[in-house]
Amino acid sequence: MAIAKAERLMNLALCLLGTRRPLSKRELRGSIEAYMEAGNDDSFNRMFERDKDDLRELGLVIETVENLEGETGYLARRDSNRLPPVSLDTEEAAALGLAAKVWQQARLAGAASGALQKLRAGGMPEAGDLIGGQHSAIEPRIPVHEAAFEPLMLACRDRRPVVFDYRKSTAARPETRQVEPWALECWRGHWYLAGYDRERGAERVFRLSRITGKVRSRAGRYTAEVPDVVTVRETVAGWAGESADRSALIRLRAGAGYPLRAKATAVREGADGWDELEIPYGHGLDAWLVEFGPDVVVVEPADLRADVVDRLRAVAGG
Question: CA 186 from chain center: how many Å?
Answer without folding.
Answer: 10
